[in-house]
């Protein structure tokens, strides 16, 4: 399945992974790869179903939590569930994550918590993201949005300033 997916033969890759699952329904790698394939094809409903199956087998599967959380916030409109996933991972698995994974987790938590109205938790997560990457445009954006949600317009403006500066610097590098 992996070689087929790498060459863009997604339908054939799906058939290969499904065939593997028929012989070994608990083969977590096949379930995860099916979810990722469906996500890359834009079939988010199928991706969510397969990501959920992965989490039934391994509740702390980090790649699944990060991918599913992103879909839940950005596509499915379920930030509450995403926040719960991120919280689970943050409590249980954060020390074993790479720095980019920690940043993705912090930004995901900030976004999900902000969208469910938990602005204090969102600001804490945004601060954690900025500790990991002090010039993260997404970190400044999340910090500004959570400060705005808390009603602190001055702090929101202070956070937007660096985001705009770094964002324009990055744009100039393209």
Architecture blueprint of SSEs:
Blueprint lengths: L1 H5 L3 H14 L4 H13 L3 H14 L4 H13 L4 H14 L6 H17 L3 H14 L4 H13 L3 H20 L2
Helix pairs in contact: 2-3, 3-4, 4-5, 5-6, 5-7, 6-7, 7-8, 7-9, 8-9, 9-10
Offer a quick outline of the entry.
The chain has 174 residues and is mostly helical.
The total of beta strands comes to 0
- Helix fraction by DSSP (H/I, runs of at least 4): over 70%
Rg from Cα: 18 Å
Strand content: under 5%
Biggest sheet details: none
Average pLDDT metric: 85
Amino- and carboxy-terminal Cα gap: 34 Å
Number of helices: 10
Which class do the helix and strand fractions yield?
mainly alpha
Contiguous uncertain segments of 5+ residues: none
Specify the overall morphology. elongated
Helix/strand order, N-terminal first = HHHHHHHHHH
Structural account:
- Helices cover 79% and strands 0% of the residues.
- The chain is mostly helical.
- Helix 4 runs antiparallel to helix 5, helix 8 (119-132) runs antiparallel to helix 9 (137-149) and helix 9 runs antiparallel to helix 10.
- The chain starts with a helix and ends with a helix.
- The model has no long low-confidence stretch (mean pLDDT 85).
């Amino acid at each position: 399945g992996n070689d087929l997916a790498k060459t863009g033969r997604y339908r054939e890759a799906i058939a290969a992974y499904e065939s593997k699952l028929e012989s070994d329904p608990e083969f977590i790698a096949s379930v995860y790869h099916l979810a990722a394939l469906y996500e890359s094809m834009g079939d988010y409903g199928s991706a969510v179903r397969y990501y959920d199956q992965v989490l039934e087998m391994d509740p702390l599967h980090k790649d699944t939590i990060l991918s599913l959380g992103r879909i839940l916030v950005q596509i499915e409109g379920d930030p509450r569930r995403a926040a719960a996933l991120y919280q689970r991972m943050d409590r249980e698995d954060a020390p074993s994550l790479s720095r980019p994974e920690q940043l993705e987790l912090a930004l995901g938590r900030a976004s999900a918590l902000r969208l469910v109205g938990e602005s204090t938790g969102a600001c804490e997560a945004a601060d954690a993201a900025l500790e990991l990457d002090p010039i993260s445009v997404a970190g400044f954006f999340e910090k500004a949005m959570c400060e705005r949600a808390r009603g602190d317009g001055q702090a929101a403006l202070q956070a937007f300033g660096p985001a705009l500066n770094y964002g324009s610097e990055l744009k100039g590098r393209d």
